[in-house]
Protein backbone atom coordinates (compact mmCIF):
# COMPACT_ATOMS: atom_id res chain seq x y z
CA UNK A 1 0.00 0.00 0.00
CA UNK A 2 1.28 3.45 -0.91
CA UNK A 3 0.51 5.17 2.39
CA UNK A 4 2.27 2.41 4.37
CA UNK A 5 5.79 3.45 5.44
CA UNK A 6 5.02 7.05 4.47
CA UNK A 7 5.87 9.68 7.06
CA UNK A 8 2.15 10.15 7.62
CA UNK A 9 1.99 6.50 8.64
CA UNK A 10 5.06 7.06 10.85
CA UNK A 11 4.06 10.45 12.26
CA UNK A 12 3.62 8.92 15.72
CA UNK A 13 6.00 5.93 15.50
CA UNK A 14 8.85 7.91 13.92
CA UNK A 15 11.89 7.17 16.10
CA UNK A 16 13.48 10.49 15.31
CA UNK A 17 10.32 12.35 16.24
CA UNK A 18 9.88 10.39 19.48
CA UNK A 19 13.43 10.80 20.69
CA UNK A 20 13.50 14.47 19.67
CA UNK A 21 10.21 15.36 21.35
CA UNK A 22 11.28 13.59 24.57
CA UNK A 23 14.64 15.34 24.49
CA UNK A 24 13.14 18.80 23.95
CA UNK A 25 10.61 18.31 26.78
CA UNK A 26 13.31 17.42 29.32
CA UNK A 27 14.34 20.01 31.88
CA UNK A 28 11.93 22.77 30.80
CA UNK A 29 10.67 25.05 33.60
CA UNK A 30 9.00 27.97 31.83
CA UNK A 31 5.25 27.16 31.56
CA UNK A 32 5.02 28.74 28.08
CA UNK A 33 7.88 26.58 26.83
CA UNK A 34 6.30 23.50 28.38
CA UNK A 35 3.01 24.24 26.58
CA UNK A 36 4.80 24.11 23.25
CA UNK A 37 6.80 20.98 24.07
CA UNK A 38 3.57 19.21 25.06
CA UNK A 39 1.70 20.18 21.87
CA UNK A 40 3.34 17.78 19.41
CA UNK A 41 0.66 15.07 19.56
CA UNK A 42 -1.94 17.30 17.91
CA UNK A 43 -0.29 16.64 14.54
CA UNK A 44 1.90 13.60 15.21
CA UNK A 45 -0.78 11.46 16.93
CA UNK A 46 -3.95 13.23 15.75
CA UNK A 47 -6.43 10.37 16.11
CA UNK A 48 -5.38 9.82 19.71
CA UNK A 49 -5.53 13.53 20.41
CA UNK A 50 -9.10 14.01 19.17
CA UNK A 51 -10.36 10.84 20.88
CA UNK A 52 -8.87 11.83 24.25
CA UNK A 53 -5.46 10.16 24.62
CA UNK A 54 -2.68 11.25 24.43
CA UNK A 55 -3.44 14.86 25.30
CA UNK A 56 0.23 15.80 25.58
CA UNK A 57 3.65 14.69 24.38
CA UNK A 58 4.74 13.31 27.76
CA UNK A 59 1.68 11.03 28.19
CA UNK A 60 2.59 7.35 28.58
CA UNK A 61 3.08 6.05 25.04
CA UNK A 62 2.35 2.44 25.97
CA UNK A 63 -1.24 3.44 26.74
CA UNK A 64 -1.93 4.97 23.34
CA UNK A 65 -4.56 2.92 21.43
CA UNK A 66 -3.19 0.86 18.49
CA UNK A 67 -5.28 2.77 15.97
CA UNK A 68 -3.89 6.13 17.08
CA UNK A 69 -0.36 4.77 16.77
CA UNK A 70 -0.97 4.47 13.03
CA UNK A 71 -0.44 8.19 12.75
CA UNK A 72 -2.11 10.28 10.08
CA UNK A 73 -4.34 7.67 8.53
CA UNK A 74 -6.96 7.20 5.81
CA UNK A 75 -9.98 7.80 8.01
CA UNK A 76 -8.53 10.85 9.64
CA UNK A 77 -7.93 12.78 6.41
CA UNK A 78 -11.08 11.47 4.79
CA UNK A 79 -13.29 12.54 7.71
CA UNK A 80 -12.09 16.12 7.50
CA UNK A 81 -14.64 18.69 6.41
CA UNK A 82 -12.77 21.97 6.61
CA UNK A 83 -10.02 23.77 8.53
CA UNK A 84 -10.83 26.48 11.04
CA UNK A 85 -7.32 27.95 10.67
CA UNK A 86 -4.41 27.20 8.37
CA UNK A 87 -1.85 26.39 11.05
CA UNK A 88 -1.40 24.08 14.06
CA UNK A 89 -3.84 21.50 12.70
CA UNK A 90 -7.17 23.29 12.49
CA UNK A 91 -8.87 20.33 10.78
CA UNK A 92 -12.56 19.86 11.57
CA UNK A 93 -13.25 16.14 11.75
CA UNK A 94 -16.62 14.41 11.41
CA UNK A 95 -15.68 10.84 12.19
CA UNK A 96 -17.90 7.75 12.15
CA UNK A 97 -18.65 5.59 15.16
CA UNK A 98 -16.70 2.42 14.48
CA UNK A 99 -17.58 -0.42 12.09
CA UNK A 100 -21.34 -0.25 12.71
CA UNK A 101 -21.48 3.33 11.52
CA UNK A 102 -18.34 4.28 9.61
CA UNK A 103 -19.71 7.74 8.81
CA UNK A 104 -19.26 9.74 5.66
CA UNK A 105 -15.90 9.58 3.89
CA UNK A 106 -14.97 12.63 1.92
CA UNK A 107 -12.97 12.72 -1.29
CA UNK A 108 -12.39 14.45 -4.58
CA UNK A 109 -14.92 12.61 -6.79
CA UNK A 110 -18.47 13.77 -7.31
CA UNK A 111 -19.78 10.33 -8.39
CA UNK A 112 -18.15 7.95 -5.90
CA UNK A 113 -20.08 5.04 -4.42
CA UNK A 114 -19.15 2.62 -1.68
CA UNK A 115 -20.97 -0.40 -0.25
CA UNK A 116 -19.39 0.23 3.09
CA UNK A 117 -19.35 3.89 3.93
CA UNK A 118 -21.22 6.92 2.68
CA UNK A 119 -19.16 9.00 0.31
CA UNK A 120 -19.36 12.74 -0.20
CA UNK A 121 -17.68 15.07 -2.64
CA UNK A 122 -15.34 17.43 -0.85
CA UNK A 123 -13.81 20.41 -2.54
CA UNK A 124 -11.66 20.86 0.56
CA UNK A 125 -9.75 17.68 -0.32
CA UNK A 126 -8.73 19.12 -3.67
CA UNK A 127 -7.14 22.20 -2.05
CA UNK A 128 -3.76 22.87 -0.44
CA UNK A 129 -5.46 24.04 2.75
CA UNK A 130 -6.10 20.45 3.88
CA UNK A 131 -2.31 19.97 3.90
CA UNK A 132 -1.46 23.49 4.97
CA UNK A 133 -3.23 23.34 8.29
CA UNK A 134 -0.57 20.90 9.56
CA UNK A 135 2.28 22.03 7.32
CA UNK A 136 2.22 25.50 8.91
CA UNK A 137 3.35 25.34 12.53
CA UNK A 138 3.42 28.22 15.03
CA UNK A 139 4.68 28.22 18.59
CA UNK A 140 1.50 27.83 20.65
CA UNK A 141 2.35 30.75 22.98
CA UNK A 142 4.99 32.94 21.31
CA UNK A 143 3.39 32.53 17.84
CA UNK A 144 6.85 32.26 16.23
CA UNK A 145 6.58 30.65 12.78
CA UNK A 146 8.22 27.24 13.22
CA UNK A 147 7.19 25.75 9.86
CA UNK A 148 5.71 27.72 6.95
CA UNK A 149 5.46 25.30 4.01
CA UNK A 150 1.88 26.32 3.19
CA UNK A 151 2.60 30.08 3.35
CA UNK A 152 5.72 29.66 1.22
CA UNK A 153 3.59 27.87 -1.39
CA UNK A 154 0.77 30.45 -1.17
CA UNK A 155 3.24 33.25 -1.98
CA UNK A 156 4.89 31.31 -4.81
CA UNK A 157 4.34 31.20 -8.59
CA UNK A 158 2.68 27.78 -8.12
CA UNK A 159 -0.27 29.52 -6.49
CA UNK A 160 -2.76 31.29 -8.75
CA UNK A 161 -6.26 32.68 -8.18
CA UNK A 162 -7.14 30.79 -11.36
CA UNK A 163 -7.89 27.21 -10.28
CA UNK A 164 -6.81 25.85 -13.65
CA UNK A 165 -3.34 27.34 -13.25
CA UNK A 166 -2.86 26.60 -9.56
CA UNK A 167 -0.50 23.74 -8.72
CA UNK A 168 -1.56 22.50 -5.30
CA UNK A 169 0.44 20.37 -2.86
CA UNK A 170 -1.54 17.42 -4.24
CA UNK A 171 -0.58 18.51 -7.79
CA UNK A 172 3.04 17.51 -7.07
CA UNK A 173 2.99 15.20 -4.04
CA UNK A 174 -0.06 13.16 -5.06
CA UNK A 175 1.23 12.70 -8.61
CA UNK A 176 4.55 11.24 -7.51
CA UNK A 177 5.10 7.52 -7.97
CA UNK A 178 8.13 5.31 -8.59
CA UNK A 179 10.15 6.74 -11.53
CA UNK A 180 7.89 9.83 -11.70
CA UNK A 181 9.24 12.43 -9.25
CA UNK A 182 6.52 14.96 -10.26
CA UNK A 183 8.33 18.10 -9.16
CA UNK A 184 8.28 21.65 -10.53
CA UNK A 185 11.17 20.80 -12.88
CA UNK A 186 9.70 17.60 -14.33
CA UNK A 187 6.53 16.50 -16.05
CA UNK A 188 3.69 15.60 -13.74
CA UNK A 189 1.79 13.09 -15.87
CA UNK A 190 -1.63 11.85 -14.84
CA UNK A 191 -2.02 8.43 -13.26
CA UNK A 192 -5.07 6.88 -14.90
CA UNK A 193 -6.81 3.90 -13.33
CA UNK A 194 -9.51 2.87 -10.89
CA UNK A 195 -9.65 3.97 -7.26
CA UNK A 196 -11.44 0.82 -6.07
CA UNK A 197 -12.00 -2.65 -7.57
CA UNK A 198 -15.41 -1.88 -9.02
CA UNK A 199 -15.02 1.88 -9.36
CA UNK A 200 -15.16 3.74 -12.66
CA UNK A 201 -12.05 4.40 -14.75
CA UNK A 202 -10.54 7.81 -13.78
CA UNK A 203 -8.13 9.95 -15.72
CA UNK A 204 -6.10 10.52 -12.54
CA UNK A 205 -5.87 8.53 -9.32
CA UNK A 206 -4.17 10.58 -6.62
CA UNK A 207 -1.16 8.69 -5.30
CA UNK A 208 -0.66 8.37 -1.53
CA UNK A 209 3.11 7.86 -1.16
CA UNK A 210 3.46 11.30 0.48
CA UNK A 211 7.19 11.29 -0.14
CA UNK A 212 9.09 14.47 0.70
CA UNK A 213 12.80 14.40 1.34
CA UNK A 214 13.10 11.76 4.06
CA UNK A 215 14.92 8.68 2.76
CA UNK A 216 15.93 7.38 6.18
CA UNK A 217 12.69 6.22 7.81
CA UNK A 218 11.35 4.25 4.83
CA UNK A 219 14.76 2.60 4.44
CA UNK A 220 14.89 1.74 8.15
CA UNK A 221 11.57 -0.03 7.69
CA UNK A 222 12.74 -1.90 4.61
CA UNK A 223 10.81 0.20 2.09
CA UNK A 224 13.59 0.90 -0.38
CA UNK A 225 11.16 2.05 -3.03
CA UNK A 226 10.06 5.04 -0.94
CA UNK A 227 13.63 5.82 0.06
CA UNK A 228 14.54 5.88 -3.63
CA UNK A 229 11.57 8.15 -4.37
CA UNK A 230 12.80 10.65 -1.77
CA UNK A 231 16.26 10.67 -3.35
CA UNK A 232 14.80 11.15 -6.80
CA UNK A 233 12.58 13.99 -5.54
CA UNK A 234 15.60 15.77 -4.08
CA UNK A 235 17.53 15.27 -7.31
CA UNK A 236 14.79 17.06 -9.23
CA UNK A 237 14.59 20.06 -6.89
CA UNK A 238 17.64 22.21 -7.49
CA UNK A 239 20.27 23.27 -10.01
CA UNK A 240 23.79 24.66 -9.55
CA UNK A 241 25.82 26.72 -11.96
CA UNK A 242 29.25 28.33 -11.87
CA UNK A 243 29.86 31.75 -13.43
CA UNK A 244 33.00 31.02 -15.42
CA UNK A 245 33.74 34.65 -16.32
CA UNK A 246 34.37 35.54 -12.66
CA UNK A 247 37.04 32.86 -12.32
CA UNK A 248 39.51 35.20 -14.05
CA UNK A 249 39.54 37.25 -10.85
CA UNK A 250 39.86 34.07 -8.76
CA UNK A 251 36.28 34.51 -7.65
CA UNK A 252 34.03 31.49 -7.56
CA UNK A 253 30.42 32.60 -8.03
CA UNK A 254 27.81 29.88 -7.68
CA UNK A 255 24.10 30.15 -8.37
CA UNK A 256 21.84 27.81 -6.38
CA UNK A 257 18.38 27.58 -7.89
CA UNK A 258 15.16 26.09 -6.57
CA UNK A 259 13.81 24.50 -9.73
CA UNK A 260 11.47 21.88 -8.38
CA UNK A 261 10.04 22.57 -4.94
CA UNK A 262 6.68 24.33 -4.60
CA UNK A 263 7.91 25.99 -1.41
CA UNK A 264 11.23 27.14 -0.02
CA UNK A 265 14.17 24.82 -0.37
CA UNK A 266 14.45 23.30 2.10
CA UNK A 267 11.06 23.56 3.82
CA UNK A 268 9.39 22.24 6.98
CA UNK A 269 11.37 22.18 10.18
CA UNK A 270 14.34 23.88 8.68
CA UNK A 271 15.92 24.62 12.04
CA UNK A 272 16.83 20.93 11.84
CA UNK A 273 17.10 20.16 8.11
CA UNK A 274 20.50 20.66 6.51
CA UNK A 275 21.08 21.68 2.91
CA UNK A 276 24.61 22.84 2.20
CA UNK A 277 27.23 23.58 -0.44
CA UNK A 278 30.45 21.63 -0.73
CA UNK A 279 33.24 23.15 -2.79
CA UNK A 280 36.48 21.46 -3.80
CA UNK A 281 39.10 23.15 -6.00
CA UNK A 282 42.01 20.99 -7.15
CA UNK A 283 45.06 22.23 -8.99
CA UNK A 284 46.28 20.49 -12.12
CA UNK A 285 48.23 17.97 -10.02
CA UNK A 286 45.14 17.00 -8.03
CA UNK A 287 46.15 18.89 -4.86
CA UNK A 288 43.32 20.58 -2.99
CA UNK A 289 43.86 24.35 -3.06
CA UNK A 290 40.45 25.38 -1.69
CA UNK A 291 37.60 23.62 0.09
CA UNK A 292 34.38 24.58 1.85
CA UNK A 293 31.65 22.51 3.48
CA UNK A 294 33.66 19.29 3.87
CA UNK A 295 32.49 16.94 6.61
CA UNK A 296 34.80 15.75 9.39
CA UNK A 297 35.34 12.08 10.25
CA UNK A 298 32.07 12.01 12.23
CA UNK A 299 30.22 13.46 9.24
CA UNK A 300 29.69 16.70 11.18
CA UNK A 301 29.70 19.99 9.30
CA UNK A 302 32.06 22.87 9.92
CA UNK A 303 30.77 26.12 11.48
CA UNK A 304 31.58 28.13 8.33
CA UNK A 305 29.75 25.85 5.88
CA UNK A 306 27.29 27.64 3.59
CA UNK A 307 24.06 26.18 4.85
CA UNK A 308 20.43 26.90 3.96
CA UNK A 309 18.33 26.75 7.10
CA UNK A 310 16.63 28.72 9.86
CA UNK A 311 17.93 29.56 13.32
CA UNK A 312 15.62 30.48 16.20
CA UNK A 313 16.51 32.83 19.04
CA UNK A 314 15.62 33.25 22.72
CA UNK A 315 14.30 36.80 22.30
CA UNK A 316 17.67 38.37 23.14
CA UNK A 317 19.49 37.41 19.98
CA UNK A 318 20.97 34.17 21.28
CA UNK A 319 20.46 31.06 19.16
CA UNK A 320 18.34 28.25 20.65
CA UNK A 321 18.08 24.66 19.45
CA UNK A 322 14.81 23.91 21.21
CA UNK A 323 11.63 24.99 19.36
CA UNK A 324 9.91 25.32 22.73
CA UNK A 325 12.21 28.31 23.41
CA UNK A 326 11.83 29.88 19.96
CA UNK A 327 10.83 33.49 20.60
CA UNK A 328 12.27 34.91 17.37
CA UNK A 329 13.83 33.98 14.04
CA UNK A 330 17.49 34.96 13.84
CA UNK A 331 18.31 33.53 10.44
CA UNK A 332 16.20 32.37 7.52
CA UNK A 333 18.40 31.61 4.57
CA UNK A 334 16.53 29.40 2.15
CA UNK A 335 15.63 29.50 -1.52
CA UNK A 336 12.10 30.53 -2.59
CA UNK A 337 10.38 28.59 -5.40
CA UNK A 338 11.82 29.31 -8.88
CA UNK A 339 14.35 31.70 -7.37
CA UNK A 340 18.12 31.59 -6.80
CA UNK A 341 20.70 32.62 -4.26
CA UNK A 342 24.22 33.55 -5.26
CA UNK A 343 27.29 32.52 -3.22
CA UNK A 344 30.73 34.00 -3.76
CA UNK A 345 33.95 32.31 -2.65
CA UNK A 346 37.33 34.03 -2.74
CA UNK A 347 39.81 31.55 -4.18
CA UNK A 348 43.54 31.77 -3.35
CA UNK A 349 45.53 34.07 -5.66
CA UNK A 350 47.33 31.37 -7.58
CA UNK A 351 47.35 30.42 -11.23
CA UNK A 352 44.20 28.35 -11.67
CA UNK A 353 45.12 27.05 -15.13
CA UNK A 354 44.33 23.33 -15.30
CA UNK A 355 42.42 23.45 -12.01
CA UNK A 356 39.16 21.61 -11.51
CA UNK A 357 36.28 23.07 -9.51
CA UNK A 358 33.50 20.91 -8.17
CA UNK A 359 30.49 22.31 -6.32
CA UNK A 360 27.85 20.00 -4.81
CA UNK A 361 24.57 20.64 -3.04
CA UNK A 362 23.75 18.15 -0.29
CA UNK A 363 20.70 17.37 1.86
CA UNK A 364 20.40 15.64 5.22
CA UNK A 365 17.25 15.43 7.39
CA UNK A 366 19.10 16.60 10.53
CA UNK A 367 22.61 17.36 11.77
CA UNK A 368 24.41 14.09 12.51
CA UNK A 369 25.73 15.72 15.68
CA UNK A 370 22.21 16.36 16.97
CA UNK A 371 21.13 12.80 16.15
CA UNK A 372 24.20 11.43 17.96
CA UNK A 373 23.59 13.65 20.99
CA UNK A 374 19.93 12.68 21.32
CA UNK A 375 20.06 9.00 20.36
CA UNK A 376 23.60 7.96 21.19
CA UNK A 377 26.58 7.94 18.90
CA UNK A 378 26.41 5.57 15.93
CA UNK A 379 22.78 4.61 16.58
CA UNK A 380 21.38 6.36 13.51
CA UNK A 381 23.44 7.34 10.49
CA UNK A 382 21.38 9.72 8.38
CA UNK A 383 21.80 9.44 4.62
CA UNK A 384 23.51 12.34 2.83
CA UNK A 385 21.94 12.95 -0.56
CA UNK A 386 23.57 14.84 -3.41
CA UNK A 387 20.88 17.05 -4.94
CA UNK A 388 22.93 18.76 -7.65
CA UNK A 389 26.49 19.27 -8.89
CA UNK A 390 28.42 21.65 -11.13
CA UNK A 391 31.98 21.17 -12.45
CA UNK A 392 34.39 23.38 -14.34
CA UNK A 393 37.85 22.63 -15.66
CA UNK A 394 39.92 25.75 -16.24
C1 LIG B 1 -2.82 13.27 4.56
C2 LIG B 1 -4.22 13.06 4.24
C3 LIG B 1 -4.62 11.77 3.54
C4 LIG B 1 -4.39 10.48 3.97
C5 LIG B 1 -3.61 10.03 5.19
C6 LIG B 1 -5.06 9.62 3.03
N1 LIG B 1 -5.64 10.35 2.05
FE1 LIG B 1 -6.74 9.65 0.49
N2 LIG B 1 -6.80 11.50 -0.33
C7 LIG B 1 -6.38 12.65 0.30
C8 LIG B 1 -6.64 13.78 -0.56
C9 LIG B 1 -6.30 15.22 -0.21
C10 LIG B 1 -7.24 13.28 -1.74
C11 LIG B 1 -7.72 14.06 -2.94
C12 LIG B 1 -6.64 14.77 -3.72
C13 LIG B 1 -7.21 15.81 -4.69
O1 LIG B 1 -8.33 15.67 -5.15
O2 LIG B 1 -6.48 16.76 -4.99
C14 LIG B 1 -7.36 11.82 -1.56
C15 LIG B 1 -7.92 10.94 -2.47
C16 LIG B 1 -8.29 9.64 -2.17
C17 LIG B 1 -9.14 8.79 -2.96
C18 LIG B 1 -9.80 9.19 -4.24
C19 LIG B 1 -9.34 8.41 -5.40
C20 LIG B 1 -7.96 8.70 -5.84
O3 LIG B 1 -7.08 7.85 -5.50
O4 LIG B 1 -7.74 9.69 -6.53
C21 LIG B 1 -9.24 7.58 -2.32
C22 LIG B 1 -10.03 6.37 -2.74
C23 LIG B 1 -8.42 7.69 -1.12
N3 LIG B 1 -7.86 8.94 -1.06
C24 LIG B 1 -8.25 6.66 -0.21
C25 LIG B 1 -7.34 6.70 0.86
C26 LIG B 1 -6.94 5.55 1.64
C27 LIG B 1 -7.48 4.14 1.47
C28 LIG B 1 -6.02 5.99 2.55
C29 LIG B 1 -5.21 5.18 3.58
C30 LIG B 1 -4.45 4.08 3.06
C31 LIG B 1 -5.89 7.42 2.36
N4 LIG B 1 -6.68 7.82 1.32
C32 LIG B 1 -5.08 8.24 3.13
C33 LIG B 1 -5.79 12.74 1.55
C34 LIG B 1 -5.39 11.68 2.33
C1 LIG C 1 5.93 22.17 -7.67
C2 LIG C 1 5.89 20.93 -6.94
C3 LIG C 1 5.61 20.99 -5.46
C4 LIG C 1 4.53 21.58 -4.82
C5 LIG C 1 3.40 22.39 -5.44
C6 LIG C 1 4.69 21.28 -3.41
N1 LIG C 1 5.83 20.56 -3.19
FE1 LIG C 1 6.48 19.81 -1.41
N2 LIG C 1 8.21 19.15 -2.29
C7 LIG C 1 8.50 19.26 -3.62
C8 LIG C 1 9.86 18.82 -3.82
C9 LIG C 1 10.58 18.77 -5.16
C10 LIG C 1 10.38 18.44 -2.57
C11 LIG C 1 11.79 17.91 -2.25
C12 LIG C 1 12.73 19.05 -1.92
C13 LIG C 1 12.47 19.67 -0.60
O1 LIG C 1 12.72 19.02 0.43
O2 LIG C 1 11.95 20.80 -0.55
C14 LIG C 1 9.31 18.67 -1.62
C15 LIG C 1 9.41 18.40 -0.26
C16 LIG C 1 8.38 18.55 0.64
C17 LIG C 1 8.47 18.22 2.05
C18 LIG C 1 9.70 17.68 2.78
C19 LIG C 1 10.62 18.81 3.14
C20 LIG C 1 11.77 18.44 4.03
O3 LIG C 1 12.91 18.74 3.68
O4 LIG C 1 11.56 17.87 5.09
C21 LIG C 1 7.25 18.52 2.60
C22 LIG C 1 6.85 18.36 4.04
C23 LIG C 1 6.41 19.04 1.54
N3 LIG C 1 7.11 19.06 0.37
C24 LIG C 1 5.08 19.45 1.70
C25 LIG C 1 4.38 20.21 0.75
C26 LIG C 1 3.12 20.89 1.02
C27 LIG C 1 2.37 20.85 2.32
C28 LIG C 1 2.78 21.56 -0.14
C29 LIG C 1 1.61 22.50 -0.38
C30 LIG C 1 1.48 23.61 0.57
C31 LIG C 1 3.79 21.24 -1.13
N4 LIG C 1 4.75 20.44 -0.54
C32 LIG C 1 3.79 21.70 -2.45
C33 LIG C 1 7.65 19.71 -4.62
C34 LIG C 1 6.43 20.37 -4.41
C1 LIG D 1 -2.77 15.98 10.48
C2 LIG D 1 -1.70 16.79 10.03
C3 LIG D 1 -1.22 16.63 8.58
C4 LIG D 1 -1.96 16.76 7.42
C5 LIG D 1 -3.43 17.04 7.27
C6 LIG D 1 -1.02 16.58 6.34
N1 LIG D 1 0.24 16.33 6.83
FE1 LIG D 1 1.89 15.87 5.76
N2 LIG D 1 2.92 15.48 7.47
C7 LIG D 1 2.45 15.71 8.74
C8 LIG D 1 3.46 15.30 9.71
C9 LIG D 1 3.34 15.39 11.22
C10 LIG D 1 4.56 14.81 8.96
C11 LIG D 1 5.90 14.31 9.49
C12 LIG D 1 5.80 13.06 10.25
C13 LIG D 1 7.15 12.68 10.82
O1 LIG D 1 8.17 12.93 10.19
O2 LIG D 1 7.20 12.14 11.92
C14 LIG D 1 4.17 14.93 7.55
C15 LIG D 1 4.98 14.55 6.49
C16 LIG D 1 4.70 14.82 5.16
C17 LIG D 1 5.58 14.57 4.06
C18 LIG D 1 6.96 13.91 4.14
C19 LIG D 1 8.01 14.89 4.53
C20 LIG D 1 9.42 14.35 4.46
O3 LIG D 1 10.25 14.88 5.21
O4 LIG D 1 9.72 13.46 3.69
C21 LIG D 1 4.97 15.03 2.93
C22 LIG D 1 5.50 15.01 1.51
C23 LIG D 1 3.67 15.53 3.31
N3 LIG D 1 3.53 15.39 4.67
C24 LIG D 1 2.74 16.08 2.43
C25 LIG D 1 1.42 16.34 2.78
C26 LIG D 1 0.38 16.67 1.82
C27 LIG D 1 0.58 16.82 0.34
C28 LIG D 1 -0.77 16.82 2.54
C29 LIG D 1 -2.15 17.16 2.02
C30 LIG D 1 -2.74 16.21 1.08
C31 LIG D 1 -0.45 16.59 3.94
N4 LIG D 1 0.88 16.31 4.04
C32 LIG D 1 -1.36 16.66 4.98
C33 LIG D 1 1.23 16.21 9.07
C34 LIG D 1 0.16 16.37 8.20
C1 LIG E 1 0.90 21.75 13.42
C2 LIG E 1 1.40 20.41 13.24
C3 LIG E 1 2.66 19.97 13.98
C4 LIG E 1 2.94 20.07 15.31
C5 LIG E 1 2.08 20.66 16.41
C6 LIG E 1 4.25 19.47 15.49
N1 LIG E 1 4.74 19.01 14.30
FE1 LIG E 1 6.48 17.99 14.02
N2 LIG E 1 6.11 17.91 12.03
C7 LIG E 1 5.01 18.47 11.41
C8 LIG E 1 5.19 18.36 9.98
C9 LIG E 1 4.20 18.86 8.94
C10 LIG E 1 6.42 17.71 9.76
C11 LIG E 1 7.07 17.37 8.44
C12 LIG E 1 7.86 18.55 7.96
C13 LIG E 1 8.97 18.20 7.04
O1 LIG E 1 9.22 17.03 6.77
O2 LIG E 1 9.63 19.11 6.61
C14 LIG E 1 6.97 17.42 11.08
C15 LIG E 1 8.18 16.75 11.29
C16 LIG E 1 8.79 16.62 12.52
C17 LIG E 1 10.08 16.00 12.76
C18 LIG E 1 10.98 15.38 11.71
C19 LIG E 1 10.94 13.90 11.76
C20 LIG E 1 11.92 13.22 10.83
O3 LIG E 1 11.95 11.97 10.86
O4 LIG E 1 12.66 13.87 10.11
C21 LIG E 1 10.37 16.12 14.08
C22 LIG E 1 11.63 15.64 14.81
C23 LIG E 1 9.24 16.80 14.68
N3 LIG E 1 8.30 17.09 13.71
C24 LIG E 1 9.15 17.13 16.03
C25 LIG E 1 8.09 17.80 16.59
C26 LIG E 1 8.05 18.16 17.99
C27 LIG E 1 9.14 17.87 19.00
C28 LIG E 1 6.86 18.80 18.18
C29 LIG E 1 6.34 19.43 19.46
C30 LIG E 1 7.23 20.37 20.10
C31 LIG E 1 6.16 18.84 16.90
N4 LIG E 1 6.94 18.21 15.96
C32 LIG E 1 4.91 19.40 16.70
C33 LIG E 1 3.91 19.03 11.99
C34 LIG E 1 3.79 19.31 13.35
Automatic annotation (TrEMBL):
- Which superkingdom does the taxonomy of this entry point to? Bacteria
- Gene3D superfamilies of this UniProt entry? Flavocytochrome C3, Chain A (1.10.1130.10)
Cytochrome c-552/4 domain span:
2-79
| Region (Disordered) location | 179-201
Q: Which Pfam families would you find in this protein's record? A: Cytochrome_C554
Q: Which InterPro entries match?
A: Cyt_c-552/4, Multihaem_cyt_sf
- Per its record, how is this protein called by name? Cytochrome c-552/4 domain-containing protein
Native organism: Desulfamplus magnetovallimortis
Amino acid sequence: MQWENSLHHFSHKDLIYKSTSDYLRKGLKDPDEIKEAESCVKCHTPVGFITGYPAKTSDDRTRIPKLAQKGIQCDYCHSATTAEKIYNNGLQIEPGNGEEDPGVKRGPFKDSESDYHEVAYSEFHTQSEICGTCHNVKHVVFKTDLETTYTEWKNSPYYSDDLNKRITCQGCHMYQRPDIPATGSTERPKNPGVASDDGPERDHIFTHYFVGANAYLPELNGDLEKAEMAVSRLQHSAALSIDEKQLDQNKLVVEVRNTGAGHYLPTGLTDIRQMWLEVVVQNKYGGKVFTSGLRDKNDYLNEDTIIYNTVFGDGNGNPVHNVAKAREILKDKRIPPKQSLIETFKLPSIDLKGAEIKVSLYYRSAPQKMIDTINGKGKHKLPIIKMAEAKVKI
